[in-house]
């Protein structure tokens, strides 16, 4: 397709619009074959295509197709004079099918990103937050989180009832009341999150304080996950590690008890395993324990474990594999402690098949500035300019 130069003159844009004489069905067929970044550019270049691109029906059609083509998403922060946030997307079925987009960042800002949800991703650096579409390279800034506290947890998700994206942010407020009369500090497990804020992605939205009837403290360092209209994260509730859930539609919290297991009270990360919320922990013997939530209402959990495969490097040495996550296909992802972060192993516990994935174009990357996400789907959504 011939590239169309954007004109500031609206009348001139209409004259140069290549879609003017095409039927809507033909325009949709053309757009469905394009990459999200090309679609985003046509939003500005063509009046006819713009109305279709912004239509929620078209966005959902594109999303429905993308859900059948999951991808790896690699986030890389590259410092220097021109600080850039790079995103590389690779097909999980055909890793050679990849592309990269970049986002220029403010100096001295290093965003940590939450797992992508329906093609969008959310990053936070203390109280600064951005939401973006890594498939188009478009990012918008959210209002600063209203807090001065440093212990912050943010989780990103999608409300399917109201068709909106939301961010949940919680902070621990350290007050003088947390000091006892004799001057000793209150035990950390007795301190709870006292600020719960939500913001909806959209023009001129602001952070809203909400109530939580379950006094809890989110576990620092543990990341939340999104699944079917709910956010999940690990927290301390009544001095025990528990699973917290947040309904993005009703904006209500709930708590689920964890099994009485000593290791589970200290270790484990949330993953989505076969469509179920799961706590995964790699033990000292290399095995990966999987605690699967079978019934949230009855608080029923099941447990099984997976023995990682043996992997040998170029020099014939066994690699020490570290568990990273689980794909929607059931394959488990492992990375080598000694190899660069852009090499990992996919292992199918049922068939015992192993395949190795090498990510190219990540020269100079280290484990400290790279994040890898699984089951990412491309979105053609154009974000609102003002948030």
Automatic annotation (TrEMBL):
F-box associated beta-propeller type domain segment(s): 73-377
Organism domain of life: Eukaryota
NCBIfam families: F_box_assoc_1
Listed name of the protein: (rape) hypothetical protein
Organism: Brassica napus
């Amino acid at each position: 397709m011939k590239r169309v130069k954007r004109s500031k003159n609206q009348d001139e844009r209409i004259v140069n619009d290549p879609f003017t004489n095409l039927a809507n069905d033909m325009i949709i067929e053309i757009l469905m074959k394009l990459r999200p970044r090309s679609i985003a550019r046509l939003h500005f270049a063509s009046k006819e295509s713009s109305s279709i691109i912004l239509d929620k029906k078209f966005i959902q059609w594109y999303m429905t197709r993308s859900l059948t083509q999951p991808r790896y998403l690699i986030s890389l922060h590259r410092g220097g004079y021109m600080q850039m946030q790079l995103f590389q997307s690779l097909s999980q079925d055909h890793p050679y099918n990849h592309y990269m987009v970049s986002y220029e960042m403010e100096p001295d800002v290093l965003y940590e990103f939450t797992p992508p949800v329906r093609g969008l991703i959310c990053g936070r650096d203390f109280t600064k937050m951005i939401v973006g579409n890594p498939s188009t390279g478009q990012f918008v800034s959210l209002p600063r989180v209203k807090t001065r506290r440093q212990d912050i947890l943010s989780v990103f998700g999608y409300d399917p009832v109201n068709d909106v994206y939301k961010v949940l942010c919680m902070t621990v407020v350290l007050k003088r009341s947390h000091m006892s009369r004799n001057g000793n500090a209150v035990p950390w497990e007795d301190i709870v999150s006292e600020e719960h804020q939500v913001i909806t992605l959209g023009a001129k939205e602001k952070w809203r304080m909400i109530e939580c009837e379950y006094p809890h403290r989110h576990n620092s360092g543990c990341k939340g996950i999104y699944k079917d209209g709910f956010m999940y994260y690990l927290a301390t509730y009544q001095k025990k590690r528990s699973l917290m859930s947040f309904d993005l539609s009703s904006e209500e919290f709930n708590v689920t008890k964890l099994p009485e297991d000593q290791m589970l009270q200290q270790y484990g990360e949330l993953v989505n395993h076969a469509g179920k919320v799961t706590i995964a922990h790699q033990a000292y013997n290399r095995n990966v324990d999987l605690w699967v939530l079978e019934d949230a209402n009855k608080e029923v959990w099941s447990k099984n474990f997976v023995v990682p495969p043996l992997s040998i490097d170029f020099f014939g040495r066994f690699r020490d594999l570290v568990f990273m996550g689980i794909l929607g296909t059931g394959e488990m992802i492992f990375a080598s402690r000694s190899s660069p972060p852009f090499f990992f192993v996919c292992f199918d516990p049922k068939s015992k098949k192993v395949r190795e994935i090498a990510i190219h174009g990540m020269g100079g990357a280290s484990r400290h500035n790279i994040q890898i996400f699984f089951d990412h789907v491309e979105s053609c959504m154009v974000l609102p300019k003002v948030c």
